[in-house]
Amino acid sequence: MAEPHIDPQALDEVVTFTSELIRIDTTNHGGGDGVERRAAEYVAERLADVGVEPTLLEKAPDRTNVVARIPGTDPSADALLVHGHLDVVPAQPEDWTVHPFSGEVLDGVVWGRGAIDMKNMDAMVLAVVRAWARAGVRPRRDIVLAFTADEEDSAEYGSGFLADHHPGLFEGCTEGISESGAFTFHADDGLRLYPVAAGERGTAWLRLTASGAAGHGSKVNRANAVSRLAGAVTRIGEYAWPVRLTPTVRAALTELALANGLEAPDLDAPGFDVDALLARLGSSAALVEPTVRNSSNPTMLEAGYKVNVIPGRATAFVDGRMVPGGEEEFRETMDRLTGPDVAWEFHHRETPLQAPVDAPAFAVLREALEHYDPTARVVPFCMSGGTDAKQFSRLGITGYGYSPLRLPAGFDYAALFHGVDERVPVDALHFGVQVLDRALLAL
Question: Are 128 and 440 in contact (CB under 8 A)?
Fold first, then answer.
């Protein structure tokens, strides 16, 4: 049963807001090509309707962010940041069952790009804040709301711009919550997990450049830039990174083992084999497997302009990710794998993050989920990718991934991130509004 101030209107509004935000096409094509203004204005209007004063900020025309502050009842308390991005990745309508920007509600499901990532969370936040206003409810702490542009690219026009140029708007914020956590993960044997993110691997997008001697394709060339680049790319793609267990990942492995009926593993035992443990965790291993190591995946190659001409230059791009504490190892390994004939540089870089899982904030997030789904198991995890929490961490804000959704068995949450037929059940949105309300008021 909903809290008294999460009224039927709030449950209706979260569905309406999700649908209507999806209909506003905020596709981020990268490289500065995006338009979030209409969605930002939509959010700002719904905040202003209930007396929450929004501020709209842009680094460039139409790359619009919204920031607002809700005063808490305890002026001495630290502030809390609640943030969500307004942009979405591209979608090809011909690939979808329902048009990706229709926002249609069919058979109890809201369809469209952003239904999971992350206009659903934006809608939940709006619905909760408006319900508070109707009921005269105020949180204990100041809550700063941030609806950002450009999260799906570099965040240059969004959270990066806000953190670098408008830090005063986030004064007093010590913790933040946002996307990619608190969703139902259906594991083996009916085990129902809710992973709450307490860390992120760092982003290390690389540009590799090989130089050589240009020449005719019919002649011997021992300084072929394409061959040099291909060798480096192969070494990087095939490299087996060593295990590096961070505190968040260690906690995740322990709790997942217990949830699966195993003994708590001795992670410090000589010869401990994390891959053997992951194999025993069954499907729930997917929550932690990408984050026990650094990683590096070649993704793009660019070279040449004619088949019988050896180019003097070739480039490649690599999607690298660094576990917290693994940055120096990553640099040294790239120096070694690229070798003397290939230079590398960061095309885009963001720091890894960790948040304490034994902190009072995590306990509050756990309790709110267990209150509304008592038979489920809440576990910490580290995100393999990243969010706007990276940029806000520059301001000393510790971030947790927490956009609560109770999902039915067979609903593949992870596959819908940036995937085809992205959608979210109405029941999941209702659950999320109630959990988010309880958590925010208790934090």
Answer: yes
C-alpha 287/C-alpha 202 separation (Å) is: 17
H-helix segments, 357-425: 360-372, 389-392, 413-416
E strands, 94-212, where? 105-106, 109-111, 143-148, 173-178, 185-186, 192-200, 202-211
SS3 387: coil
User: What DSSP assignment string belongs to 180-208?
Assistant: S-SB-EE-GGG-EEEEEEEEEPEEEEEEE
Count of C-beta atoms within a 10 Å radius of residue 387: 26
Among positive and negative, which fits the CA dihedral 321, 323, 329, 333? negative
Query: Residue 53, SS3?
Result: coil
Q: Looking up tokens 């999607």, which residue turns up?
A: 319
Sign of CA dihedral 261, 267, 271, 276: positive
pTM of the full structure = 0.94
CA-nearest of 151, 171, 170 to 160 is 151
Question: Which SS3 state, helix, strand or coil, does residue 22 take?
Answer: helix
Q: In what order do the strands lie in the sheet with 423-425?
A: 105-106, 109-111, 423-425
Active site (annotated) includes residue 87:
yes
Q: Is 238 a catalytic residue?
A: no
The catalytically annotated residue of 36, 87, 350, 388 is 87
Residue 11 CA: distances (Å) to CA of 75, 123, 276: 30, 10, 44
Are 42 and 144 in contact by the 8 Å Cβ rule? The answer is: no
Helix (H, G, I), strand (E, B) or coil at 393: helix
Backbone φ and ψ of 284, nearest 5°: -70, -15
Q: Measure the CA–CA gap between 441 and 26, rounded to whole angstroms.
A: 31
pLDDT tens for 5-61 read 799 999 999 999 999 999 999 999 999 999 999 999 999 999 999 999 999 999 999
Q: Which of 221, 18, 242 has its CA nearest to residue 108?
A: 18
The predicted-structure confidence for 290-314, as pLDDT tens digits, reads as follows 999 999 999 999 999 999 999 999 9
Options 36, 142, 150, 151, the catalytic residue? 151
Contact 170, 89 (CB under 8 A): no
Of 186, 184, 115, 124, the residue nearest 373 (C-alpha): 184
- pLDDT at position 385 is 85
Q: Which residue matches tokens 């961490």?
A: 393
Q: At what angle do helices 8-23 and 426-442 cross, to 10 degrees?
A: 110
State how far the Cα of 405 lies from the Cα of 118, in Å rounded to an integer: 12
Report which of 117, 132, 147 is spatially closest to residue 45, judged by C-alpha positions. Answer: 147
